[in-house]
Amino acid sequence: MAFFDPITNKLVIQVVYDGAPYSGKTESVRALAQLFGREVETPEEVDGRTMLFDWMQHEGGERFGRAIDCRVVSVPGQADLAERRRTLLQAADALIFVVDTTVDGFERSVSLFHEITGDGPDRVDAPMIVQLNKRDRLDTVNSRRAREPFAQHPSVKHIFLTWALERRGIRESFVLAVSHAVRRFAAERRTRPHDDMHSTQPVRLLNPQQLTAILAELEAFGSDPYPVG
User: Fold this and answer.
1) For residue 91, with 0-12 CB atoms within 10 Å meaning exposed, 13-18 middle and 19 or more buried, which class applies?
2) Closest by alpha carbon to 78, among 107, 105, 99, 49?
3) Secondary structure class of 203 (helix, strand, coil)
4) How many CA atoms lie within 13 A of 2 on its CB side?
5) Which of 92, 33, 36, 91 is nearest to 61 (CA)?
6) Which of 71, 125, 130, 151 is close enough to 159 for a disulfide, judged by CB 3.0 to 4.6 Å?
7) Which residues contact 215 (CB under 8 A, 6 or more apart)?
8) What is the pLDDT of residues 16-25, one digit of tens each?
9) Distance (Å, rounded) from C-alpha 75 to C-alpha 88?
10) How far apart are CA 51 and CA 134, in angstroms?
């Protein structure tokens, strides 16, 4: 869950980009960074593929008299990195699910969507924005078919057609994801004691170095994610 950073006095919102391999997660974060004039940090990359996460930080807007500090990560899509992905997914205050809408990649994206909305260990309860990506390609499924698997799920708040490489639809997806994360936090804040608002987030995205260390420790010792800060 989102949290107030006692050092900066900002509201921290954690936005996670998920999706099947080659769906455009990294491209989406990099496009977002270009739009906002930010930098992306990728601690480990092999042959152009993200092995840990992509990181971007952006401050924009205000709520509860505090600036909103957005910590953005994309998860690795490879099957053998499922534990890293699972840990990062559980940090999400809002999830942007990037769908590969090419004919070859679409069903793989749908299958992964069912995993994170089902009852298994990868389930994510955060509000979700769906990006139907690669709409600039000629080999995509039609937009009606592309929407069908996602349109009726209660976690899905909006569906955007996106062209990550051309930065189209990227800002809109992100802004709406942050908006829903803030609404969720506000609702939780009304129903829970303020001194209990810091204990529910499995992993807090404080900075890339600490997040890298957390992932390394989890893999080394096989422990569960733990609160940080």
Assistant:
1) buried
2) 49
3) coil
4) 35
5) 36
6) 130
7) 52, 53, 84, 87
8) 999 999 999 9
9) 7
10) 22
What is the reported pTM?
0.88
Distance (Å, rounded) from C-alpha 26 to C-alpha 51? 11
Tokens of 202: 């499995």
Angle at which helices 82-89 and 208-221 cross, to 10°: 130
Nearest to 201 by CA among 16, 51, 66, 50: 16
Q: Which of 61, 9, 59, 16 is nearest to 177 (CA)?
A: 16
Any residues with CB less than 8 A from the CB of 173 and at least 6 apart, and which?
28, 96, 129, 131, 158, 160, 162
How many CB atoms sit inside 10 A of residue 123's CB? 14
Q: What is the pLDDT of residues 73-116, one digit of tens each?
A: 998 866 656 777 888 898 899 999 999 999 999 999 999 999 99
The residues near 25 (Cβ < 8 Å, ≥ 6 apart) are 17, 18, 19, 50, 54, 74, 75, 77, 98
Strand pairing category for 45-46 and 49-50: antiparallel
Task: Tell me which residue of 199, 135, 144 sits closest to 173, measured CA to CA.
Answer: 135
